[in-house]
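Q: What would this complex look like in 3D?
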Amino acid sequence: MAKIAVTDGLSDEAVRILQSAGHEVHIKHHEQSEINNGSLSKFDAVVIRSATKLLSQQIMASVSDDGGIRFIGRAGVGVDNIDINTATKMGIIVCNTPGASTSSVVELTIGHLLASTRHIVTADRTMRNGEWSKKRLRGSEIGGKRLGLIGLGRISRGVAQIARSFGMEIHAYDPYVEEVPGWITMHEEVDTIFSSCTHISIHCNLTEETANLVNSSRISMMPGIGLDGTKCGNHIVSCARGGIVDENDCSDALSNGQLSSLALDVFSTEPLIESPLMNHDGFHGSPHIAASTLEAQSRIGTEMASLIIQFFKTGKTDYSLNNV
Amino acid sequence: MAKIAVTDGLSDEAVRILQSAGHEVHIKHHEQSEINNGSLSKFDAVVIRSATKLLSQQIMASVSDDGGIRFIGRAGVGVDNIDINTATKMGIIVCNTPGASTSSVVELTIGHLLASTRHIVTADRTMRNGEWSKKRLRGSEIGGKRLGLIGLGRISRGVAQIARSFGMEIHAYDPYVEEVPGWITMHEEVDTIFSSCTHISIHCNLTEETANLVNSSRISMMPGIGLDGTKCGNHIVSCARGGIVDENDCSDALSNGQLSSLALDVFSTEPLIESPLMNHDGFHGSPHIAASTLEAQSRIGTEMASLIIQFFKTGKTDYSLNNV
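A: Here is my prediction, written as C-alpha cells for the whole assembly.
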C-alpha cells in the first residue's frame, strides 16, 4: 500500500476512498525548501494543486535510491507547475483531472461576461455607497454579438455552447484542434479574432506563444460595434492563466476607452495585491476561484483517488499526461 | 399629425422616426402636480416609462372637452403605474412594448444568478480591499440543480431555456398559462416550488396575490441540498418588481443561513437608500437596470414609434393592452 503526500489539500471524500483502499494519506503542506531537501522522497505518491511547484530540482530531490515518488497527481487542470519531462525521465507518472472542473469554469466565465456587460459589480458597489446609479449603468446584451474564443478545449467548447444559447455567434482560434462543430467559425490567425469580435474569452494554456497575447496592439483591433450594429464596446474575460492577458496594456485600454470591460479570475502575479486595474469601474476580478466549487472539488478528489488506486493496483492508469 | 408628450425619455432613433412621420415630439418631464393640473391635456398622446404615474386622477386631468390624450404608451413592460380601466372608460388606448426588453432581462437574471452562486461581487470587493479571499469564496454550480420559476411568461421562458443549457432542471408555477414545453415541470402550488428548488427566480407581476410572496415561511421550505446532492444552499433572484420579495424576511434568512444568496434588481422602495440587506455578503443588488441596455432601449423606442404612427394613421394598433 502506498504512502501518499497531499500538499495542497484534497476533498474529505477522496481521502476516505484512498484510506478505505488501504493507502496511507498524509495531508500537510511541504515548503519548497523542504521539498528541495527531499521531504517527498519518503512517499510513493504526491498530490498537489497549484501552490506546490515540482520543477526539475524538486522532482530530482523526491526520488531516492530505494524509491521515492512514482506518481504525481495534480488535483486540477493546469500543469505549468510540474516539469513533466523530468518526471518522465525519472519514470514518474503524472496525472491531472482535466474534466472535473470544466462546468465550474464554464459557469464562472459566463458569469464574469454578464457581470461585465451589465455592470453587476459596479451596480452593487454604488448601491452600497448610497447611490442609485441606474442612469449611468446602461449595459448591452451579449445576444447578437460575436464571441471570440482563444483556445478551443473542453472549457471553451462548454462556454461556446452556452453563449450560443444566448444568441451569440461563435468564433475561435486554436491551431491545435481539428474536429470542430459547424456552428463555430475557426480563424487561421489570432489577430482576426480580435478584429472581428467585440467579446473575447481566453481559454488557452500559458506558453511562450501565448504570454501577453492580449496586448495593446490586439485590443486596438477590436471593433467596438457589435455584429447587430450596437455600439456595445469591447469586452474581454479570462479564467485561464495569468500572464496571457497583459494587465498594464488592459489598464491603458480601459483608460482610453478601447476596452469597455475586463473580467479576470487569473493574474500574472497571485495573490494580486495591487494593480492599476483596480482604478477602473470597467474591471472586476476574482481570486482564481474558477474551479472553487463544491462540485468541482468533489469530482477532482474522487477522480484523483481512482487514478491513484488504479496505479498502485495495476501499475498504470487509464489516463495520464506522460508515458512511463 | 399628433402632439406627443414624452415624459421619461425615448431613444433618439424613435424620436426621429416619429418626426419623419410628421408628428410633433415634446421631450420634457411633467411633475405629478403639473399632470394633475392638466399639463398633458394639450397633447394627443403621452409616452411614459415607470417614473410617471397615470392613475385615475391623472388620466381624468389629461382629457378635455376638445380632446386630450387618446394614446398612452408605456415604453417598457410593467403597467402598474397606469390605471388601464380608467383609460378604457375614457376611450384611451394603452400600449406597452412587452417583447422589447425580454432578452435584456433574461441576461441580467442569469448574470445575477451566477454572480450569486460564484460570489462575483464579494470577490471583487475583497480584492479591491487588498484581500485574496480564494479560500472563503467556494461557490457551487447551477448545473445539476433545480430552478424554480414563479411566473412563466416571455422572460421566464427565456431564462428557462438558458438555464436548461447549463444543465438545470426547470420547475415553474404559473396558474395563468396553459401551453408549456414538456421539459418544464409545472406545479399546482407555489409552496412546492419552494420545497423542491434550491434556486428560485421571480418573474410574476406585482399583485395582491404576489405581494410578499417570497417570505420567511416559504424560504424556510427550501431544501438547501441540490438535486445532485450538493450542499449548495438556497438562492433567490428577482428582476421582476419590488414588493414580491419581502426584503426584511430575506435579510433574516441570510442571517440565519436559510438563504445563501439573494440578488435583486427591484426593491419595494426605489431608489433604495438604506436596507438591512446591505449588511450581507450573500446579497447583491442593482438599481432596476434589467431593461437598461442599448438594445432594449432601441427596440422599445422603435416599437413604440411604430405603434403611435399606426394608431394616428388607422385609429388602431396591432397590439394593445385594452380595447377602446
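A: To summarize the key features: The radius of gyration of chain A is 22 Å. The longest strand of chain A covers residues 146-150.
Q: Very helpful, thank you.
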